[in-house]
Amino acid sequence: MLTLYPVSISRIPADFGRMEELLDLIMRAFAYMDGVIDPPSSAHRLTVENLREKCAAEIAFVALEGERLVGCVFLAERTDHFYLGKLAVDPSYQGRGTGRLLLKAAEEAAVAGGKPRIELQTRVELTANQTAFAQMGFVETGRSAHAGFDRPTSITMRKALA
Fold first, then answer.
1. Under 8 Å between Cβ of 6 and 56
2. Buried-state track 47-61, b at ≥16 Cβ within 10 A, e below 16
3. Disulfide check for 75: which of 59, 119, 126, 129 has CB 3.0–4.6 Å away?
4. pLDDT value, residue 5
5. How far is the C-alpha of 65 from the C-alpha of 76, rounded, in Å?
């Protein structure tokens, strides 16, 4: 468990009973993207049930302040890396280092899992996210388009791990 008073980071257990809260957190954290990115965020396709399945299939971490759920992140194993997704921090906790703590936990899990890098995607329109990830050691490795789009909609970024 990682702790930055008063926020602690721990792995989401298989019997996590707070899926509704987790879904609400993700939706609040991603709400600022509505009307900014096209197509809309895949967060809109999340349900309690498929979030439960995501937690079972991936490595997932939660950030808590006491009992308050304030952040989460997911890692999906790929052939040569882990894919980092749904890094979400409660809007009232952003800018306090919670995202960095979640990323550190994800990096430690990736190294423990034998993968030398983490990959993520962020949207072309979200330049502040691109800058923040670059400041945390990620570099752009490509751009891609969602189905039906003739322009890049996503930027792929990778971070090599020690």
1. no
2. eeeebeebbeebbbb
3. 59
4. 56
5. 25
Tens-digit pLDDT profile for residues 128-149:
999 999 999 999 999 999 999 9
Which residue, among 44, 60, 41, 53, has the nearest Cα to 121 in the 3D structure?
Answer: 41
> Three-state DSSP class for 90?
coil
Q: What percent of the chain has pLDDT over 90?
A: 88
Determine contact, residues 104/7, Cβ cutoff 8 Å: no
What tokens were used for 66? 């006491």
- Return phi, psi of residue 97, to 5°: 100, 0
Single pTM value for the model: 0.92
- Give 68-118 pLDDT, tens digit per residue: 999 999 999 999 999 999 999 999 988 888 999 999 999 999 999 999 999
3-state secondary structure of 56: helix
Separation in Å, CA 133 to CA 49, 51, 118, 137, 151: 30, 24, 12, 7, 22
Beta strand 82-89 with 117-123: parallel, antiparallel or unpaired? parallel
Among the listed residues 132, 131, 134, 154, the one whose alpha carbon sits nearest the alpha carbon of residue 142: 154
Task: Name the one residue in this structure whose structure tokens are 């919670």.
Answer: 98
